[in-house]
Design a protein that fits this description.
Strand content: 25-35%
Order of helices and strands: HEEEE
Largest sheet: 4 strands, antiparallel
Mean pLDDT: 77
Number of strands: 4
Number of helices: 1
Structural class: alpha+beta
Distance between the termini: 32 Å
Radius of gyration: 13 Å
Shape: flat
Number of domains: 1
Length: 77
């Protein structure tokens, strides 16, 4: 299982456990949303819900430090 598949599977399981809507159930709530990042770079949030949150998972052993500056990502227009 790659990082993307693991993140999506984990999030879907979490939604089911909490009995909350899943990504794709409404506009602006989806997997792999392209975002603008402070500093002019772009990236992708593993899960994104407009106006609520963006989530990023890393595969075991991957370095999250490189993305820590991206934690204040905002949605692209």
């Amino acid at each position: 299982m790659n990082e993307e598949q693991g993140a999506q599977s984990h999030f879907l399981d979490l939604c089911e456990l909490l009995a909350v809507p899943k990504p794709g159930s409404e506009a602006g709530y989806l997997f792999e949303e392209k975002n603008s990042v402070i500093g002019g770079r772009t990236g992708y949030a593993d899960v994104f819900r407009r106006g609520a949150f963006a989530s990023e998972n890393k595969a075991p052993g991957k370095n999250l430090d490189a993305r820590s500056s991206n934690s204040s990502a905002t949605a692209s227009p």
